[in-house]
Write a structure and sequence with these properties.
Helix content: 55-70%
Oligomer: single chain
Number of helices: 16
Order of helices and strands: HHHHHHHHHHHHHHHH
Distance between the termini: 18 Å
């Protein structure tokens, strides 16, 4: 459905006349859209961290490669970030409009792919884990109770109902193909029966748990250089550490950063443990890793005590970003259908 407007505006009269480029425009736009959503959470990540996260999103070989790959995943990742950013805005403003937008995001996630339930489960786990951690920290803190900021964790019931309603409307419209397929909504639920069977091992796409991490962190096939996004992973670990070190100068909103840590860790574990694996699925947890990498890069720069060390660190990070960008260019332009490419798996 999101491809239709692009196809209507193009010169093709039928499927036989379609070019790859026309189809791929939709994933390009959603890949760019990830960067455009980041300002919605700028006050949570921090301005500098948001800028670094945008750079890493733009340079990440996985994000770039699948932003030109006609498959569901980039849309699912975009709608996931839409849900997260709308949820954050609601938590800050308690405005019904943001609750409705979060519901729309969930509905679009559902309409895109069955695996949306994994991201929703990770979000739920992260909310509970963050709340428990904050409560534990508050109990251990020596500060007087009145000095600990109060956070409203429980949304208004009417806003919950609004979010569920908007999610349900989106789910219904897309799965019944805008009132032309009455069986669609039921099929969207019964699909989990064969899906669970496939995820459990009845598929040729069965791989060991480190499959995704090997592709992302150290992929070195024969007659090929090493492909790696380890820089992003290392910075994400720095961001995760900053979330729990209780230094307000390093992290803009520690609660949000801890949520991202719990969310990303949970989703990484879930996708790694499921035997059924296809390479594009890694984008779902890699989004969280990139957001944490932005926080990590910002925290490291903040830790520099002199202007010279700060300049040197930024220059070093710049070299790392350039390396990521060169990999993105090479993998997308010269090895786009080559098995030496870590993200080539089953071409659409």
């Amino acid at each position: 459905y999101f491809s239709l407007p692009i196809l209507w505006l193009g010169p093709a009269k039928n499927a036989a006349e379609l070019s790859d480029a026309e189809l791929r425009v939709v994933t390009v736009l959603f890949g760019l859209g990830l960067i455009l959503l980041l300002p919605l959470v700028k006050d949570g990540l921090g301005r500098t961290a948001t800028s670094w996260a945008a750079v890493f999103l733009a340079a990440s070989p996985a994000m770039v490669f699948y932003s030109r790959y006609f498959i569901h995943e980039m849309l699912l990742v975009f709608f996931t970030l839409l849900t997260l950013t709308a949820g954050w805005r609601y938590a800050q403003s308690r405005h019904a409009g943001w609750a409705a937008l979060a519901g729309i995001g969930v509905g679009l996630m559902f309409a895109t792919k069955e695996t949306f339930v994994l991201s929703i489960a990770a979000m739920g786990f992260a909310l509970v884990a963050t709340r428990l951690w904050n409560r534990w920290r508050a109990q251990r803190s020596q500060a007087p109770a009145e000095s600990i900021p109060k956070v409203k964790w429980t949304p208004a019931p009417r806003h919950v109902a609004l979010a569920l309603t908007t999610a349900g409307v989106v789910w219904l419209l897309f799965f019944n193909s805008f009132f032309t397929n009455a069986a669609g909504p039921g099929d969207s639920l019964t699909t989990y029966l064969p899906w669970l069977h496939r995820a459990g091992g009845a598929s040729p796409h069965i791989h060991p748990w480190p499959f995704y991490l090997e592709r992302l962190l150290w992929f070195h096939p024969a007659k090929s250089p090493v492909w790696t996004e380890a820089l992003i992973a290392i910075l994400a670990l720095c961001g995760a550490a900053a979330a729990f070190c209780n230094n307000p100068n390093l992290v803009s909103r520690p609660g949000l950063t801890r949520f991202l840590v719990f969310y990303t860790a949970a989703l990484t574990v879930i996708y790694s443990l499921i035997s059924y694996k296809t390479t594009w699925c890694l984008l779902n947890f890699w989004l969280g890793v990139i957001l944490l990498a932005g926080i990590g890069a910002s925290a490291l720069v903040q830790m520099c005590r002199t202007r010279l060390t700060r300049i040197l660190l930024v220059a070093l990070l710049g070299v790392g970003v350039l390396h990521l960008a060169l990999q993105s260019w090479t993998l997308s332009q010269y090895l786009a259908a080559d098995l030496r490419n870590p993200y080539v798996y089953a071409q659409t």
